[in-house]
Amino acid sequence: MKSTLMSFKDNTISFPELIKLKRDGGQLSPAEIGVFVHGVTSRDIQDSQIGAMLMAIWQKGMTDEETVALTREMMNSGETFKWPKEWLVIDKHSTGGVGDKVSLPLAPALAACGCKVPMISGRGLAHTGGTLDKLESICGFKVYQSVEQVKQILEDVGCCIVGQTENLVPADRVLYALRDATSTVDSQPLIISSIISKKGAEGLSALVLDVKFGRAALYKDMDSARRLAQLLINVGNKLGVKTGAVLSRMDSPVGQSVGNAVEVCEALECLKGRGSDDLKELVTTLGGHLLCMCGHSFTIESGKKEIALKLENGEALKKFEAMLVAQGVSADVAHSLCSNETDYFKHMKRAAHQTELEVPDNGAVLDIDGLALAEVLHKLGAGRTKSGEEIDHSVGAEILVKIGQQIQKGESWIRIHHNCPDLSTHYSDLQKVLVIGSRDEYSPASRVAEFIDPDYLNMS
User: Fold this and answer.
1) For 244-270, how does the pLDDT look when each residue is reduced to its tens digit (9 = 90+)?
2) What cellular component GO annotations does this protein have (predicted)?
């Protein structure tokens, strides 16, 4: 039977007593948090006890000091990356949304600017898509790389997009799975420690957070997103990572595609200097802030212009092609995908059926409901309900109209990629995605709402 006794400097306390301390609103010391995380990592603590502690944290919260201590202990629970001092090592993290393929063009664009980007990404869950799932749409792409392989790829290419390894922040893997099982996913201290511990283990010079708000985001309003962003910035900076945040709207999908393979296609179009304006806006904004934060650029605007140039002149595309090869894709396939004119589905699975839906009435496109669309695609196989489930990379949607556009009855407004023979049972849900009205009701809004500077705490 696993022991529940944990030794501290001058006394011994049982884990049930530690749970009771937090359950009753007490503050855990850094030493107590350290032993808790060690017990989680070594699996000396029973899952039921870890779950009880997670629920106590969910109910009572944590002070800033507790959250910083938890994040630090999780960050140091396994391997951490060490880089040459002359490297500018930077990354971004998104809180998740619909159609969010920003990482795919952003990482190689930053690498083309001379930075190093060891991007540790995740998989999709529920209605949100995962960067790793998107990249696995490409034949041969390997998301799991050892620490030594990551270092070599950064040396040779400048960027990689990889999954969390067994030895990187192992405490987070255990806690993340149990948070899902205990309905404590939305606990702010647990969200913050999960995000920042992984990014801290990357040994970053700078980190920018894309904190989304809206119908299809974790936080529905900007004030809630801002509070989370400020807490993340606080913890990140206290752990030595210069951290800032962009607040971005997440009502309609990012770009014109949702689904794994179709989002890779759109990301490649962005890397070729084409594609949707809102995707470019997010890529250049996040990249520009990062370049300024790490000292590469003097101003945010000059950083944004440099990212835009790397997308336009093909240098970011060359980095993406090199990253594909470094992570297992054959040179021929990588070159074909990155050539100017290509059939992307020569190298990614195409769904058996493509069905276009028609606009029911004349009018202006006032909204495209990202959450409603993602929920339909989830039912068609594009997403997973629980960790570890298989997904269908070929399922997705291409949105053929843009918000603000005047459209006519009978026009095609969306193309659904699906493998089920009959889509008719989903028609009513899909028609709810498109919101049509009078042009006078249209109110344009930038995808990016606000930037919170790493030094905001010092200025307040």
Assistant:
1) 999 999 999 999 999 999 999 999 999
2) cytosol
